[in-house]
Each structure stands twice: as C-alpha cells, then as structure tokens.
Amino acid sequence: MLKLTCVKKTFNKGTVTEKCALTGVDLTLEDGDFVTIIGGNGAGKSTLLNMIAGVYPLDSGTVELDGHDISRLSEPKRAMYLGRVFQDPMRGTAADMQIEENLALARRRGQHRGLAWGITKQEREEYPALLAKLGLGLETRMSAKVGLLSGGQRQALTLLMATLTNPKLLLLDEHTAALDPKTAAKVLELTEQIVAERNLTTLMVTHNMNDAIRLGNRLIMMHEGNIIYDVRGEEKKALTVPDLLQKFEEVSGGELANDRMLLS
After folding, report:
1. Which residue from 53, 56, 62 is spatially nearest to 24, judged by alpha carbons?
2. Which is it for strands 19-29 and 2-11: parallel, antiparallel or unpaired?
3. Verdict on whether the full-model pTM lies above 0.85
C-alpha cells in the first residue's frame, strides 16, 4: 500500500542551521499494516509523515501509494488518498463551523465542489449514528460549533473525519500527546476500533513506548533520519520497554534523548 524508496530531506541547505532530517528512508507497508513509530528528539518521525503527505518536496527518492507514484503530487492532491490527525486538536477541524458541517466537508474530500446543498438529508440521518460510536454525546449536538468542544472531543471528531471516506493510508502524528491521560486512552481506544473495523493501513507516531508495543502489528524505531529497528508479529508482542531502550542503545550507540518517551 505504501512504498518509500531512498527518501531524503535536508532543511536549510547551505546555512548554519542545516538539518538532515531524512537520510535515505526505505519503507514498505502492506495493505492493512498498523505501524507504530518511535524515536528520540529530531529522529525524523514527523518529517517522515510530512513527506508522505506532501507538506515538503522530496530532495530525492520516491513515494508510492497503492502502486502509484505520488512523489510529485501537491499536498492537496495527496489529501484525497490520505487521512491525517495532528498532535494539535485544533488543526483537524474548522472551529467556526458546526459538527455536521465539518463531517460534510470531510465526506467531500477530493470530490468536485458544485452548487448543491451543503448537507443532504441522508447525511443528517447518517451522522448521528457515526457520532454515537464515539461515546461522547456528540450525536445530540450536531449543530454545535466545533470550537465549543473540548480537546478530546475535537480530536475524536478529527479521527472520525479523517477516516470517513476510508483513506488508502491513515497518518497519526502523536495524536494523543496534547490530551490528558484519560482522554488520550479514550482516543486510542477509538483509534484501535476504527482501524480494525475498516482495515486501514496506518502509520502512527507516538512518544509512549507502551502504546507503541501494544498497538498495531509492527513497530519501527527511527534515529538521525533513518529506520534503525523494524519488528513485527510475535516478536513485537513479546517486547518490553527495557527491550526497546536496550535495542536503541545497541543500534544507535547512545541513550534515548526524549524525556516524554522516558517519562511515559
């Protein structure tokens, strides 16, 4: 479903702030893979997702999605194939629009926009059932402005919007990091449920090593712009946090520099 070949990215080339973010990443995801990504500060985790989404142009390499080369497609054109949830709950929704209007926008991602009713009668009948699955009471607040929702409610709604049209690839960039522990656990539970129900190919960056081990069928570790460890299946299930720390030290030659990961 996804194939990255020798993807490289350097920011601020030729300046004192030059930063090599990706040094030649090779990665292949099969249809239905749920991959968690961990790594130290500046390892290239978020940059990797941004390169897949088309936020930045590639320096070199290729990005293929479902057998098609999307390396030169713009971010808006790639968006019709991708679902994405950001770390900041405010980024995935339109605060001044109603819940049902946000869902209608998500439903029309990648489609031609013409002069028609913004929300159809069928959608008004369908959306409450979808919102009810979130278990947050949003199905009774269809006309409420999204800006009035809590961070957790907004992130859950963003997750629903990102998966509404069954994207070819779902990108989750530390999507629970800004939430309190109880709310984060709820959003992760919804993530597991939606990904499993729709068999979505998923890449999830996380700072929580326990979540990285528990979720998905595969785990990759990044360091200094490349993948240094790739584990899946039964071997992944048997991992512990001390195992991951030891593996990081073995492969990278140093200790993990990420306070959030260590504290989690």
Report:
1. 62
2. antiparallel
3. yes
Neighbours of 190 (CB within 10 A): 19
Place of tokens 């979505």: 200
**Residues in CB range of 145: below 8 A, 6 or more apart:** 95, 96, 97, 98
Place of tokens 């993807």: 7
Every domain of the chain and the residues it spans: 1-72+168-176+201-264, 82-166
Tell me the CATH class for 1-72+168-176+201-264. Answer: alpha beta
pLDDT tens, position by position, 71-123? 999 988 898 899 999 988 888 888 888 888 899 888 877 666 654 556 777 77
CB atoms within 10 A of CB 120: 12
At 234, phi and psi to the nearest 5? -65, -35
End-to-end CA distance of the chain: 31
Tell me the per-residue pLDDT of 41-60, one tens digit each, with 9 for 90 and over. Answer: 888 999 999 999 999 999 99
The answer to whether the 1-72+168-176+201-264 and 82-166 domains have the same CATH topology is: yes
> What are the tokens at 138?
């949003």
Angstrom distance (rounded) from CA 81 to CA 179: 27
Architecture of domain 82-166: 3-Layer(aba) Sandwich (3.40)
Whether 7 and 226 have beta carbons less than 8 Å apart is answered as: no
Report the C-alpha gap between 23 and 125 in whole angstroms.
49
pLDDT at 122: 79
